[in-house]
Amino acid sequence: MSNLLDPITIGARFDLRNRVVMGSMTRNRCVDDNKPGPAQIKHYADRAKDGTGLIVSEGIFIDWTGCDWQYTPVMITDDHAAAWKRVTDAVHEVGGKIFMQAWHAGRCAHDEMPIAKEHSVQVLAPSAIKANAGEYHDLPGRPGHTANVHAIEDPKTIIETYRHACTLAKRAGFDGVELLAQGGYLAQQFLNSRANKRKDSYGGTVENRCRFILETIDAITKIFEGPGAICVKISPTDYLNDSMVGFDEMKETYTYLINEMVKRRVGIITLCRRGTSTGDLLNRPKEFSIPEGYDPVLDLGKLVKFPGSPSRLMANNDYTVGEANRLIKEGKIDMITFGRPFIYNPDVIHRIRHGIPFAVNNRTNAVLYGPYKIPDENYNDWPAAAILGV
Ligand SMILES: Cc1cc2nc3c(=O)[nH]c(=O)nc-3n(C[C@H](O)[C@H](O)[C@H](O)COP(=O)(O)O)c2cc1C
């Protein structure tokens, strides 16, 4: 019977100190030309020094076309890789492991964003369909997502862009890559029949809608010499950025996708429960309703978590230490991603070890994405807990 702090092996290729993973969190603080600097080095190294099993970087855009924040990092040139190498070195020096999260926002990018204008890029998506959501803090009037969306001509060109970014990630010293395939961003747009109306082999049937993600996984597998260093983050019941689909489509799509990912021996599959009554409470419109009590982690998770499975099941969204520990002990999940606790606690592992409750946000929401005077503000100024008797 394992618990949260027991070690675990991923993809028969590397061992993690424990099963607690710092989730990917955009913090909008890469003020030096979309590269990490001293603030990011300290932030990630502090959490690695505390003993975090695995860190997933904040979402890193693979291309200027996919950006929807002004100060998020990108992985496009050797210069970006060199900047991240300083972060991965600092994490490795204290015994940590770190994956790059590969992100393309697709139709959630905005053509009015200064970053899009500066690089003269179009907003790209599987089909030219606007997402009914969005709010751009940096843009006057806080508009929603743009209607100025262009259908991707050949999805293989975007897969090539992922391949390029992940090649740089390897050069930057990342131990692997987490593919962001939730949140209504590009990879999930391909899955969703409301966002993807393509008539070619990337649209229509379930097999076709899953093709983009599976071919991207195959491309990353080649770079990292095996699928064990790949994690894919999915959120079947998601609603963010107009990502909702009906229950039947959700079940059919994700059953096929997960089975194919396990067949490919993907190292970790992160299943989020956002949008369910067990995660965020949400009044979903009737056509997208989910049966009361439905939990995608427990239902679809069975496709990942079985004796002899090559893939590890990682759960996410609104878990407590107690619930995560219970599910690991019961053999229902292998690992947990905590997101927000890692913002307010540089010492998540120490707190778990000593039974100290996590600190919560007692400041304002500016903590998340700014504004800030210097990037360290609300980022590297959260105190560790005093441990009695130590
Ligand atoms: C400030 C903030 C930024 C986030 N940015 C990302 C991101 O870049 N990529 C991603 O996949 N998820 C992102 N998330 C979602 C988290 O990774 C995680 O899935 C979510 O917070 C739920 O986990 P929790 O309940 O433990 O916080 C972000 C969440 C927060 C609070």
Automatic annotation (TrEMBL):
Residues 4-357 form the NADH:flavin oxidoreductase/NADH oxidase N-terminal domain. One of its GO terms (molecular function) is FMN binding. SUPFAM superfamilies: FMN-linked oxidoreductases (SSF51395). InterPro entries: Aldolase_TIM, OxRdtase_FMN_N, Oye-like. Signal peptide: none annotated. It comes from the Eukaryota. This is NADH:flavin oxidoreductase/NADH oxidase N-terminal domain-containing protein.
